[in-house]
Queue: 3 jobs
Job 1
Amino acid sequence: MEIGVVTKSSEGTFENTNGSDVDDTVDWCHVRESIKVIILAMAQIELSLTDGEHNVTSLGALFTDMAEHLGEVNDFLSTQSNTPVLVMAHSTILVDKVNEGVVAFQFYDRISQRLQHVIMGLALMEEVLNSKERRISPEAWQKLQDRIQDSYSLDCERKMFELLLKGTPVSEVLEQYKEEHQKTTEDDIELF
């Protein structure tokens, strides 16, 4: 393929002065630049996960340890006949609050898994875009979608994926997800 000089005409269309295929030139440019943005997005997500993982893991362990110690203190205080009722009430509230903190840290696992899925999906898309044959192959794109869908372990992710592929607007899909999952309880938490 000969790459010619591409200029913009007065009508706003692109013209190739050397007679080579303009679509190939423009396509190549868009694909290469899109791949650069995909790689940058992957790197940024990976760095965010790496930066946050150590701190969140440490804080989660700290809160879990605090919850265990508070439970032991409450067990001891409940066996004492002279423990004021108000002290026991505050201690029980404190245990509940620390446990809520532990649950909040557990959600990081879910966020981390979702971001890993994004990284994997972008990496698969980069592979398809890097090959002209695969880039124009419906089978390659279907295989990419199948691999992304197979990687999901949460039903909510699979449902979101299916709705988006059917053409449901992102805003509607996210609103539906929020409505269905605002009611999440401690029992619904999945750790990975």
Note: Helices lie at 22-79, 85-130, 132-135, 138-151, 155-165, 170-181.
Job 2
Amino acid sequence: MPQQSVTFRFLAEPTDVNFGGKVHGGVVMKWIDQAGYACAAGWSGHYCVTVSVAGVKFRRPVLVGQLVEVQASIAHTGRTSMQIFIQVRCGDPKTQHMVETNHCVISFVAMDQAGYPIDVPEFVAKTDDQKRLEKYAIRMKEIAIETENLLQQTADKG
């Protein structure tokens, strides 16, 4: 049975921060990509590449010394693609009280050894939560495609 979710837990380090003393958004994006990759590779059993990230909004900063949790879960699959819901939470390591800092949907495509897309196992949403996340992931995938099409149309006119 393929692995459906992955959770990374670690402490935010001083090397992760920007000049304002908060963890860089780019560092958070790196964590998102790493957890997403681990989930996609675990589900597909193959090397995977990032295709897009949709719906990222930073709600609150991550501070040095906070416990960080990055949870990645399969939300939807296509023939060769996987949409993975990522939730980033942080909190005081002494209390373990965690709050969401951001979430998003990241899309990956599984690749064979020659670098071509390869089929992935189908994900079937069973619980109400899984069905809600799948609907959200599908919409985020559609928005990413619409955004790319709009960019292409704009570039073609220039």
Note: The helical segments are 25-44, 128-157.
Job 3
Amino acid sequence: MKAASIAELKKELQEVPPAQLVELCLRLAKFKKENKELLNYLLFESHDLQAYIEAVKEEMDTAFAESPRQNIYFVKKHLRKILRATNKHIKYTGSKQAEVELLLYYCTKIKKAGIKVGESVALTKLYIQQVKKIEKSISLQHEDLQYDYKRQLERL
């Protein structure tokens, strides 16, 4: 079965009565945890982006506090897990500002945790890839924000 395009879905959704639209949204939320989380963000948290970013940062703090320190393999797996969750939240916001702030915070937490990125090729590549993503997102920001974010990036 072939899925319809976004334009076709939009056109069809505009013709659906509001009560039925609510039912469709709830049914969609039941099928996947990500759909439910996105709907939760859109309904309850999208109005205050800064508070959402702070909540995600607190979640990252908790995850970094639980990270293993001994085996580099487990450290790498844990960092990727944190990054997956962070990228999921970035995708929900759809904001480049949130992307820059959260990825900068992620890289800062790696440095502060004392994780030796240079010991593993995979960790080095992971870190460099995030720095590249940050640089790309910074270039799309307003000039004043670009300056502030570039200064934060240079500290890393």
Note: The chain has a mean pLDDT of 89.
